[in-house]
Amino acid sequence: MDNNFEDSNLKNTGDGIPEKETGFPDLAGAVRECFDVPGEPMNRYSPLALAFIGDSVYEIIIRSIVVQEANRPAGQLNKIKIKYVNAAAQAKIVEYLEPQLTEEECEVYKRGRNAKSYTSAKNQSVTDYRKATGFEALCGYLYLKGDMKRLLELLKDGISVIER
Asked: What 3 state SS string does the chain have?
């Protein structure tokens, strides 16, 4: 895993948001810079810390998709969102994606999946909950690493499994 956030492939877009040469903004890097928070080397984040941020990152991406597909009342938007943002759906997505993960990504997923959490999801199996935690850790890792291109590629492919 990366040992720090140093990345020579970053450029500034002029609006203060660092951007990778891939054309995808590095929002986590912009937050660190704007709020003057140092961040941690990637290998120092606990899997549950990665899952904590990854849960939000995944949800904001799904909410963005749902809202931009159609302007609907909030209750309808939430029903659509829940189809993708729940432990069973996330477990299904990560099971599908696992063969596509790099060795590094697989390691992050497994660390998150095996982390000892003191909470569990309501109405979800323990197995699905742990896989979902691993999936969220992977999302958090890619986000903090600034690899939004890879995260979006994986999510685009993964959510197709739910749509089938």
From this structure: CCCCCCCCCEEECCCCCEEECCCCECHHHHHHHHCCCCCCCHHHCCHHHHHHHHHHHHHHHHHHHHHHHCCCCHHHHHHHHHCCCCHHHHHHHHHHHHHHCCHHHHHHHHHHHHCCCCCCCCCCCHHHHHHHHHHHHHHHHHHHHCCHHHHHHHHHHHHHHHHC
Task: Show Cβ contacts of residue 10 under 8 Å, excluding neighbours closer than 6 positions.
Answer: 18, 19, 20, 26, 29, 146
Q: Which residues are catalytic?
A: 55
pLDDT tens, position by position, for the chain (164 residues)? Answer: 443 434 434 444 455 545 556 678 899 999 999 999 999 999 999 999 999 999 999 999 999 999 999 999 999 999 999 999 999 999 999 999 999 999 999 999 999 999 988 777 778 899 999 999 999 999 999 999 999 999 999 999 999 999 88
pTM of the entire predicted model? 0.86
